[in-house]
Specification:
alpha/beta, Arc Repressor Mutant, subunit A, 5-stranded antiparallel sheet, 38% helix, binds calcium ion
């Protein structure tokens, strides 16, 4: 199946560059030059993913993103955001906006294609069935829910994937590169700061001390199951 990607970008040169590269990578491409047209296109043509520029005339990229996330039919649609401001990344990846990934301009078209492929792979994951328990965490992959000390966590899709991955391997140290590869699906060494941002958000949502997700200096992260907690593994 040839997947349709919608590109919402007002600068014609960039739009054409993205279209050219996506078509070369065997995607079908639809384009829109502003937020309003982008949303119309999006709800009419049901793309598999969206490349969204933040700085758009009229309705901004953030407004478009908010609308996409508010609509049940498009809530889980992979959105790759283009931004000129790397400083915005924290906010963008957060729950309030819900970008799945971002690229800072200027970007390499090859990287854009790689990121998009990773997002699409992640959007159709191989099902990992059943329940996993790791100490105070219970991961229900079927229901796409994680509870912590009996409290259901409100997580972005990526936060869910990261915490579920850590919960499947309690006590094991994972490097940022490994997490990018296995959770994000990147097949290259990307922005490892993305991992740090997500870990920080997860810690804030877990809101507990000592930390469940431990930083191992120079190595990466691991999930620490408190003594007396159940070992990781399937719930009987
Ligand atoms: Ca723009």
């Amino acid at each position: 199946m040839v997947e349709l990607v919608l590109v919402i970008e007002d600068e014609k040169e960039i739009r054409d560059l993205i279209r050219y590269n996506l078509e070369r990578a065997s995607f079908r491409v639809a384009v829109a030059a502003d937020g309003e047209a982008g949303l119309e296109r999006l709800f009419a043509s049901r793309p598999a993913a969206v490349v969204l520029d933040l700085m758009l005339p009229g309705r901004s990229g953030l407004e478009v993103l908010r609308e996409v996330r508010a609509e049940p039919m498009t809530r889980d649609l992979p959105v790759l955001v283009l931004t000129a401001r790397a400083a915005e990344m924290d906010k963008l990846l957060g729950f309030e906006h819900g970008a799945d990934d971002y690229l800072t301009k200027p970007f390499s078209p090859r990287e854009l294609v790689a990121r998009l492929r990773a997002l699409l792979r992640r959007a159709h994951p191989a099902q990992e069935p059943g329940m996993i328990e790791a100490g105070p965490l219970v991961v229900d992959s079927g229901a796409h829910e994680i509870t912590f000390q009996g409290r259901r966590l409100t997580l972005t899709p990526r936060e869910f994937d990261l915490l579920a991955f850590l919960a499947r391997h309690p006590g094991r140290v994972h490097s940022r590169e490994e997490l990018l590869r296995k959770v994000w699906g990147y097949d290259y060494v990307g922005e490892s700061r993305t991992v740090d941002v997500h870990v920080r958000r997860l810690r804030a949502k877990l809101g507990e001390e000592p930390r469940l997700i431990e930083t191992v200096m120079g190595a990466g992260y691991k999930l620490v199951v408190p003594p007396g907690g159940a070992a990781g593994g399937p719930v009987p």
